[in-house]
Amino acid sequence: MRTWLFLFLMAASPVRAQVQNWDSGPYAANGGIRFHDDLDFFLNGYTKDELKAMRREVNLWRMNFDKMLRATIKDIQAYSEGGNMEAGTHDFTLPEARTGLPYHLEAHSGKLRAFMFGSISNPPARAQLPFWDVLLAKYDTAQVELFVVYGRELHPGDKKKFSKYPAPSSPEEKLGYAREFAQLTRLPVLVDGLDDKVFSAYGRVPNGVYVIDGEGRLIFRGTWADSRKIEHILDAVLQWEAAGRPELKARH
Predict the structure, then answer these.
(1) pLDDT at 17
(2) Which residues contact 85 (CB under 8 A, 6 or more apart)?
(3) 3-state secondary structure 119-186
(4) In the chain, what are the helix, strand and coil shares in percent, each to the nearest 5?
(5) CATH number of the domain where residue 178 is located
(6) Within its chain, how far is the Cα of 153 from the centroid?
(7) Does residue 203 lie within any of the structural domains?
(8) Phi then psi dihedrals of residue 35, to 5 deg
(9) What string of pLDDT tens digits covers the 252 residues of the chain?
(10) 223 vs 209: CA distance, rounded Å
(11) Considering the domain boundaries, does residue 251 fall inside one?
């Protein structure tokens, strides 16, 4: 009965989770459940008003004219798709911005873990924080952990909104930025090193998002941290597990 319920839910749920033509259906991989990656470079998941609000925060936000963002896309292509990123889980231990306490990814096995990269000069990441806060309230922390990794500044020193935030020159300066960022959310905010080691390990994607299952497998990665996709994936995995982990079809 639980298997049939899971299959019914999976057949029904992709419609509401369909964003940017993303294939939201799960498939079998490496002995578990996996989801299609979403490596779209364009901000199609936002409304026109949301895009206008983000563009007001920076100079030349539009991708066709923003030289820095074009360079970012080139960087993402080189690392995430050019073979420089191993598409799997990369363990890390990072301090939390508010408390300073270390968070060791591998030590939290047994739980679903979803995280995004963000920074104070990253409008899409900041726009996602309220939606991720809703997800934080929705899920049992015994099953799901959500957090942000404070990575690289997307628009450092922009003379409009982010003139006070040039690229940090010391770990202390980066921690200060992360603490300001943490005031915008209830999510834990982990702080990557000045060497961007974790950011690079996961593909150098400024607002990249990743979901890791309880066994430590990377089951989804995306270029933009769309909360709707994350909610769909978390719900699907929890339903699949509650149904006794029914057999899934392999990816075609």
Answers:
(1) 41
(2) 79, 201, 202, 203, 204
(3) CCCCHHHHHHHHHHHHHHHHCCCCCEEEEEEECCCCCCCCCCCCCCCCCCCCHHHHHHHHHHHHCCCC
(4) 35, 15, 45
(5) 3.40.30.10
(6) 15
(7) yes
(8) -125, 150
(9) 444 444 434 444 443 444 567 889 999 998 899 999 988 777 777 888 888 888 888 775 444 445 656 666 676 666 555 556 677 899 999 999 999 999 999 999 999 999 999 999 999 999 999 999 999 999 999 999 999 999 999 889 887 789 999 999 999 999 999 999 999 999 999 999 999 999 999 988 889 999 999 999 999 999 899 999 999 999 999 999 999 999 999 886
(10) 6
(11) no
Token pair 């930025």 is found at 177
Number of domains in the chain: 1
Reported pTM: 0.85
Question: What's the domain range around 140?
Answer: 28-226
Please say whether the beta carbons of 122 and 206 come within 8 A.
yes
- How far apart are alpha carbons 19 and 159 in whole angstroms? 33
Cα angle 91, 83, 27 (rounded to 5 degrees) comes to 70
Burial of 165 (0-12, 13-18, 19+ CB in 10 A): buried
Running DSSP on this structure, what letter comes out for residue 79? I
Dist CA 41 CA 155 (whole Å): 17
58 domain-assigned: yes
